[in-house]
Design a protein that fits this description.
Layout lengths: L1 E7 L5 H14 L9 E5 L6 H10 L3 E4 L1 H8 L7 H7 L4 H10 L4 E9 L2 E7 L7
Parallel strand pairs: 1-2, 2-3
Antiparallel strand pairs: 1-5, 4-5
C-alpha cells in the first residue's frame, strides 16, 4: 500500500495539491495509479483542495486524528517550524502518510512542496499497491 500524505496552507487549491503529489511521485519513480490512499490531518478535513485532489485521483481521503499524527511524526525526516507550531509534528505530510500506512510504515518520498501544498509518500512495506 502507498499513501500520499498531504499538508497545505489554508485554501490551497486542487491544482497545487495534485502538483505536490506529482513532485513526490516523480521523486519515488511512481505513478498516480500506484497510490492507494490520500491522507491528511483531521483538522484539514475541510480543505476543499485536498478533497478535490483525492476525488480526481479516485482514492479515499483518510483523516488522521492528532494522537496518531503525533506518534507517526516521530519518524518524519523533514521539519517545518510553522507546522510544529500548528500541529506539533515536524512535517504534516510525512506524519499523515506514515500514520495512514500503519505500523511498520516507512517513507519512500519525503515531503515535497509545490505552491501552498506538500506531499510525502509512505508505504506499509507490503510490496506496493494493492
Amino acid at each position: 500500500m502507498i499513501v500520499a500524505g498531504i499538508g497545505c496552507r489554508r485554501g490551497a487549491d486542487r491544482a497545487d495539491v495534485l502538483a505536490a503529489i506529482g513532485e513526490a511521485l516523480a521523486a519515488a519513480s511512481l505513478t498516480a495509479d500506484e497510490i492507494d490512499l490520500v491522507a491528511t490531518a483531521a483538522e484539514k478535513g475541510g480543505e476543499a483542495g485536498i478533497a478535490a485532489a483525492a476525488a480526481e485521483l479516485g482514492r479515499p481521503l483518510v483523516l488522521v486524528p492528532p494522537d496518531r499524527l503525533q506518534a507517526a511524526g516521530e519518524c518524519a525526516v523533514t521539519r517545518s517550524e510553522r507546522v510544529v507550531a500548528l500541529f506539533a509534528v515536524p512535517s504534516l505530510a510525512e506524519a499523515a502518510a506514515l500514520a495512514a500506512a500503519g505500523a511498520g510504515s516507512r517513507l519512500i518520498a519525503p515531503r515535497r512542496v509545490f505552491g501552498g501544498a506538500t506531499c510525502a509518500l509512505a508505504t506499509d512495506g507490503a510490496g506496493g499497491s494493492s
